[in-house]
Write a structure and sequence with these properties.
Length: 415
């Protein structure tokens, strides 16, 4: 049968293109309110390049759903004409749950729509059985919500190290926890009754930085996460690179020249074995500085004047800088964000890291924006990224009921 103009216009490809365009437009409008609010609709139109009518339509939808609100006092332009009523994010109505699964403990948290941590709790792992860990995380979130009456949860974000397949919501492999093929989205979704999104913590924090942190506005961002797990994430033009089955960023077994630490893979000198917090804390115990496995105790000892503790932290930060230099040469990002305990809490460590990176790139290196809440923000950023990428998607329509039943319906066909 010959194709007609009507059949072309009604094709699935055309509908998909329209849907993508509407999703992108809705995203840039809500992001503009997040970044610039209180902001007038006319300013949003100028910033986004959308027509004033489209901006008005999207803002009406967001207001109806309770995502944005009109600011209290209208502003006049040069004292003449109709007052501009600025819009701002409504950060008082909704929360998201954040879960970060580390090796020794799980962090559960509630965050507002600006990525600010409202409440959190650390749940030490009595066992690393995935069923028990996820059940305790769900119970922990329920307890936080019970202590926040009136807060409406939009979803749950889960972040962790290892190999995480975002599309299936599965932790494919986390060697330090001994997990393989754990269906996190399915398990937590059934326990919480909320939409659940799962991602690797390095990628989650790239999204947190571009939404709420120092990397906002950067055209390309590299994030290096150095904890018990060492991994990385790279984003260009607001898009994080995932690769097949979300396996990008696996740098744990990159060889470190001169490295001496044995790795579970059978080799010596792998990046995670050299830089991981287990190695750092073991060296601190051997030096008689601490007697446990918490790197913050080493930071505390350094702050109290222990020279050996300070040296161990600087050495590790410098080694992190040398590893970062290799990644910088390969990817050449505009901004490098580092989540590493020394650089996060001590200026001498951040300086040592920057010096190892090299003077030509040191100015592009920053520590994470979330010094005191990085793990909670990692979990929350997973679901907040989904919200800001598709604020009017089917998931939002199911879980966001209009906050004012008298609000008139908006024409859903306008873009």
């Amino acid at each position: 049968m010959p194709r007609t103009a009507a059949s072309t216009l009604a094709s699935p490809i055309a509908r998909a293109a329209d849907s993508d365009r509407r999703r992108t437009s809705a995203s840039v409008v809500l992001r503009s309110v997040l970044e610039h609010g209180p902001v007038a609709r006319s300013t949003i139109a100028r910033l986004t390049g959308l027509s004033p009518a489209s901006v008005t339509d999207y803002c009406a939808r967001f207001t109806e759903l309770g995502l944005i609100r009109e600011a209290a006092a209208p502003r006049r332009s040069n004292g003449v004409g109709r007052p501009h009523v600025p819009l701002d994010l409504d950060d008082s109505r909704f929360v998201v749950g954040g879960v970060h699964i580390a090796v020794p403990y799980t962090t559960v948290a509630l965050l507002d729509l600006r990525g600010r941590v409202l409440a959190r709790r650390e749940l030490k792992h009595e066992h690393t059985d995935p069923g028990r860990v996820l059940a305790r995380a769900a119970d922990g979130l329920a307890a936080l919500l019970a202590g926040s009456p009136g807060a409406r949860p939009l979803g749950v974000g889960v972040a962790t190290g290892g190999w995480v397949d975002r599309d299936s919501g599965t932790i494919v492999e986390h060697p330090l926890l001994g997990w393989r093929d754990v269906a996190v989205r399915e398990v937590l979704g059934a326990r919480t009754g909320l939409p659940v999104h799962v991602d690797g913590h390095a990628r989650a924090l790239v999204n947190g930085e571009r939404l709420f942190g120092r990397a906002r506005g950067s055209t390309s961002v590299l994030h290096l996460f150095v904890g018990n797990v060492v991994d990385a994430a790279f984003a260009t033009h607001d898009a994080v690179h995932y690769g097949p089955r979300s396996q990008a960023g696996a740098i744990a077994h990159l060889p470190v020249p001169g490295g001496s630490e044995p790795c579970a893979c059978g080799r010596v000198g792998c990046l995670q074995a050299e830089l991981g917090e287990r190695t750092l804390c073991r060296r601190a115990r051997e030096a008689g500085v601490i007697d446990g496995v918490n790197p913050m105790h080493l930071v505390g000892a350094a702050a109290a004047g222990n020279a050996v503790a300070a040296r161990l932290l600087r050495e590790r930060a410098a080694a992190t800088g040398r590893a970062a230099r290799l990644l910088l040469d390969l990817l050449n990002p505009e901004t490098l964000v580092v989540t590493e305990v020394g650089a996060m809490h001590r200026e001498d460590c951040l300086s040592a890291l920057r010096e190892a990176v090299g003077a030509d790139r040191a100015g592009n290196v920053v520590a994470t924006s979330f010094h005191d809440s990085v793990l909670a923000v990692a979990g929350g950023s997973v679901v907040l990224d989904v919200l800001y990428r598709d604020p009017l998607g089917p998931e939002r329509q199911r879980h966001l009921e209009p906050v004012n039943s008298e609000t008139p319906n908006v024409d859903r066909g306008r873009s």
